[in-house]
Design brief:
By secondary structure, the chain is an alpha/beta fold. Helices cover 36% and strands 26% of the residues.
Length: 300
């Protein structure tokens, strides 16, 4: 009889989707499933769907050795609990992710914030990062602004599990204090455009209008790049990272702004070495698998 291959189950849970995968020790995805998360139904319903999405993946012929969970919110990786969450996912705070997975699957469980997981995935699967030592920072520019920090390949959670949550920091804008993610994100680009054009457009539409020569869109993009460059400059001086990875949905449009961002950093006196993320929407689930496999290695 052929020996069963060892695998991990991984899942990524956010405000839009739940993505699950069966992943081997090399990072290869053997099977996958996804479904909408529909967070308005409440945290308990999302948790139940998370378990169902994973459990629906065929595992016959495989030896399941661990589960990895990537989740939106502030995640306590030791207890596997959602320590805090925004209103985007009502009732998500307090959900016991690790306990639910351990009860269903009967194996050890590793949990982390979604961007922390994404960074773990990039460090594992992005060949351009092979051998990188020291501090590596990731920014995820999507609907909001997420972040993560790793030192010599190990994720930094922080005393209150909020290390890397750069989007929650405060900056001055229009005479008041606002969170950085209201400016440096896809939503931030839309907010800046609204202020200048007195009209509504999402981030991709603003980029398209800037490319077509619309003055207000070009001004919004310029202001957005100024805020992003200052953010990277400040991270450079606070953490002195070896590398800073930029990911999230906005990275897909980098042809419109990457060279301008580098020029702005140079104008500020320099900044960290930049690299685009490569895993896209798979980053969270691949990273969760990496954390699961690391937990297996730690017990060996």
């Amino acid at each position: 009889m052929r020996a069963m291959s060892r695998v991990c189950l991984a899942v990524d849970v956010g405000g839009t989707k739940i993505a699950a995968a069966l992943v081997d020790a090399t990072g290869a995805v053997l099977a996958s499933a996804r479904r909408p998360s529909e967070p308005a139904r409440g945290g308990a319903a999302v948790l139940a769907d998370m378990i169902a999405c994973m459990d629906g993946i065929e595992r016959r012929g495989h030896d399941l050795v661990a589960v990895g969970v990537s989740a939106a919110g502030v995640i306590d990786p030791r207890a596997g609990v959602v320590a805090d969450a925004t209103d985007v996912m009502p009732g998500w705070k307090g959900q016991r992710l690790a306990d639910a997975c351990a009860t269903c699957f009967g194996v050890p469980v590793a949990c982390a914030n979604d961007v922390h997981s994404a960074l773990a995935g990039e460090l594992w699967r992005n060949e351009a990062l092979a051998g990188v030592r020291g501090a590596v920072v990731m920014l995820a520019l999507g609907t909001g602004l997420g972040g993560a920090i790793a030192v010599d390949g190990r994720l930094l959670a922080g005393a209150h599990f909020i290390a890397g949550h750069f989007g929650r920091t405060l900056v001055q804008h229009n005479g008041g204090a606002v969170t950085l993610d209201s400016l440096v994100s896809g939503t931030g680009l839309s907010n800046l455009y609204r202020e200048l054009a007195h009209a509504e457009a999402d981030g991709p539409a603003v980029l398209a209008r800037a490319g077509a020569g619309e003055a207000a869109a070009a001004a919004a993009l310029s202001a957005w790049l100024d805020y992003l460059a200052m953010t990277l400059h400040n991270i450079y001086w606070m953490l002195d990272p070896t590398l800073l990875i930029i990911g999230g949905g906005v990275i897909d449009s980098r042809a419109h702004w990457w060279s301008e961002l580098e020029a702005r950093l140079a104008g500020l006196g320099g900044g960290p070495r930049l690299a685009p993320a490569i895993l896209g929407s798979d980053a969270g689930v691949i990273g969760a698998a990496r954390l699961a496999w690391q937990s297996v290695e730690a017990r060996a």
